[in-house]
Amino acid sequence: MQNILDAISSDSATSEDFASLTLPESYRAAFVKKDEVDMFEGLATREKDPRRSLHVDEVPLPELGPGEAFVAVMASAINYNTVWTSIFEPVSTFGFLERYGRGSELTKRHDLPYHVVGSDLSGVVLKVGAGVTRWKPGDRVVAHCLSVELEGPDGHNDTMLDTEQRIWGFETNFGGLADVAMVKANQLMPKPEHLTWEEAASPGLVNCTAYRQLVSTNGGNMKQGDNVLIWGASGGLGGFATQYALNGGATPVCVVSNEEKATIARSMGAELIINRSEEGYQFWNDEGTEQDPREWKRFGARIRELTGGEDIDIVFEHPGRETFGASVFVTRKGGTITTCASTTGYMHEYDNRYLWMNLKRIISSHFANYRESWEANRLIAKGKIHPTLSRTYTLDEVGQASLDVHQNTHQGKVGVLCLAPEEGLGVLDHEMRARHESAINRFRGV
Question: Which of 52, 146, 231, 358 could hold 333 in an S-S bridge, CB 3.0 to 4.6 Å?
């Protein structure tokens, strides 16, 4: 890989230079193994350790197909889908790869006894397949994680509705936690050049997800003046939702778990903060079998106290089971609960009287279509929205990085250096970076 790194670090390497590089027969990657899917059987979810299941080793370079690209991955990041893959919950991702592999000779490449994970990257295009005209070797890029086929009609108004829609690196193979990744060329977007490799890699999945869920007409369709309840407001998803609310003229009501996270939310410009640990909300009984509507009401009263008597227009919901009943309750009449992820459990329970009789809406939201992803990346590139990177590991430490996210000991996003030999590389627009330095580093050192 040294010849590739030399070309990337060169100030004079041309597209032709990159196109003439000899690609390796194998590359370093983080992956789980099909013959280990039962390794955590009998353990509670929290006891399952990604450091045991995530392996870093050489894997063969796949064959490049039409409309695809090889990217030299300088940096990637950890998302909850990598955690889910690594602990084989709620299902093993090898089922996704098997189903995808039955589609054609090209998709069959993904059905392997190992699964290279990761749904974020920043890096440099090494080679493009037949039919790719927008991108060329040497282009500096980031990738969104939407993989679609678009051979049927369903996805042509909204690519997220394509019957063959998948999340790259989770429901497909050859993901971004590696020295080389294989993507569809329409996943590529220009790298924001005021950011380092690790900073540019970190927004991808969560930034696009937050944009669709809160801003897009496919999600919350947020407008100026809306009160937006944001759970986990300083986390990977919530940190972007808070920025979008502030940037779009809405008022975020930020729910956080400790004062350290409250400080981060305030540093973004949020003023209405609920520290759920300090205020002791307990929406479920100790057995987790029954919810307490009195706690919903106490929570709603606190929100009205902060907003001057107003209720919530949009709830940015991603914890799921733990919070969903409260989210439905506190939303105003005619308001919207947008939901994704369900990191505390998928089986949501709420009192339908508060939804049905008050004409509230629940909108499901899953990642983002190509246009939404492009718009979200454009806002990063223009310095309107900033990365939430807090800490960076090396690829060899990917298990520990995933454990941090699994146990929620992280802030914002956790980055992973792949080919990049150290942090701080990859910036071309130093003037723009200087204007936004404090915002870029907001999550660092916390």
Answer: 358
